[in-house]
Write a sequence for this structure.
């Protein structure tokens, strides 16, 4: 079994250098207590080329893929097998369904591993959101960082729960149709596609992190690519003021309170702000919740927020690495380290 070496520096391999993998790799490289052993993929075009251009060691998923990369003129450090031999932990960011097939290989090596939200809870037996259940991931062999929507649900409802305000929550999710860079391949136009089941799968998924959440979601796919938009109606445990609720959300460093009155009137304006703030890939790591839209009527609460599906799981993945390897025992300490490295700070006072 690989051990955590180099004066508490965790060597991380990233398998799958796509939408999530390239962001995870870049985030790992920014952490003072981690090093990126390398990234592995199957493609041979500009996407793999960007890994070496970014200074990351590139590995082929198999020797055939490594040969293909070399034939395409890419500098290749070896195969996934070589990469795994140089890592303490692997973050699997391959497409839904592929990760599940890789798990046996990780286990045979005694490697700790993280899968992403496309996989089922049963793949690892543990589902992770840093602010909710960091402690239960400590020292485990593996965890699953839940999907973008589920991460946002657990973050926000955990904040309300910690403040003693949450009784039950009902949410409607407007889901982006596809990721921007794949808009030429798939996506929908001139229609809305409801998810066939109520509750939609996201609320059941949130309960894999916190089984006590009384939550129901309904979801519809919408013809845009930037981010998801959630509308929530929450039955609180008692009457509370708007300020009290906002303070509950403020207690989470990964919920950013934004305001329509600041000109942040739509998803694209928030993404533009992230670009102007110099965030890599315009990443919005936080749940961006509209403070001036939030409304309280007695013991009922209503609010809406934006989820940058490509970015929100990145800080969670970094914290999951610290939890599994046991490098940092305290959730707040890990979250603070991750936030500092990624530039997650108060967007507005
Ligand atoms: N895209 C999102 O918004 C998003 C958000 C949260 C979670 N996730 C989850 O993250 C995971 C990855 O999704 P993604 O959107 O990054 O996918 P993606 O298709 O953008 O990236 C997957 C990468 O893996 C590579 N790959 C394919 N087969 C491989 C193999 N056998 N070995 C190594 N590499 C291989 C692909 O070439 C690609 O570069 C999925 O579980 C997904 O559900 C995605």
């Amino acid at each position: 079994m690989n051990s955590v070496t180099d004066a508490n520096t965790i060597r991380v391999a990233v398998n799958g250098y796509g939408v999530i993998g390239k962001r995870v790799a870049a985030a790992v490289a920014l952490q003072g207590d981690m090093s990126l052993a390398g990234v592995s993929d199957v493609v041979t075009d500009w996407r793999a080329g960007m890994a070496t251009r970014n200074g990351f060691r590139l590995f082929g998923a198999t020797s055939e893929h490594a040969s293909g990369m070399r034939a395409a003129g890419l500098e290749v450090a070896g195969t996934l097998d070589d990469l795994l031999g140089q890592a303490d932990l692997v973050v699997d960011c391959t497409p839904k369904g592929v990760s599940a097939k890789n798990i046996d290989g990780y286990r045979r090596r005694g490697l700790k591993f993280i899968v992403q939200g496309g996989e089922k809870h049963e793949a690892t037996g543990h589902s992770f959101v840093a602010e909710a259940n960091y402690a239960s991931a400590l020292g485990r062999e593996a965890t699953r960082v839940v999907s973008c929507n589920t991460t946002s649900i657990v973050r926000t409802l955990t904040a309300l729960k910690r403040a003693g305000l949450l009784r039950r929550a009902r949410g409607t999710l407007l889901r982006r149709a596809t990721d921007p860079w794949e808009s030429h391949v798939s996506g929908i136009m001139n229609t809305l596609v409801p998810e066939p089941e109520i509750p939609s799968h996201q609320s059941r998924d949130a309960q894999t992190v916190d089984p006590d959440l009384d939550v129901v979601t309904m979801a519809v796919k919408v013809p845009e690519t930037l981010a998801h938009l959630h509308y929530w109606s929450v039955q609180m445990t008692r009457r509370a003021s708007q300020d009290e609720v906002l303070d509950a959300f403020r207690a989470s460093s990964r919920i950013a309170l934004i305001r329509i009155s600041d000109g942040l009137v739509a998803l694209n304006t928030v993404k533009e702000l992230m670009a102007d703030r110099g965030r890599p890939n315009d990443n919005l790591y936080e749940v961006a919740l509209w403070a001036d839209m939030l409304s309280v009527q007695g013991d009922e609460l209503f609010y809406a927020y934006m989820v940058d599906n490509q970015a929100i799981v990145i800080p969670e993945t970094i914290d999951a690495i610290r939890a599994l390897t046991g490098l940092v025992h305290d959730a707040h300490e890990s979250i603070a380290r991750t936030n500092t490295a990624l530039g997650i700070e108060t967007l507005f006072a």
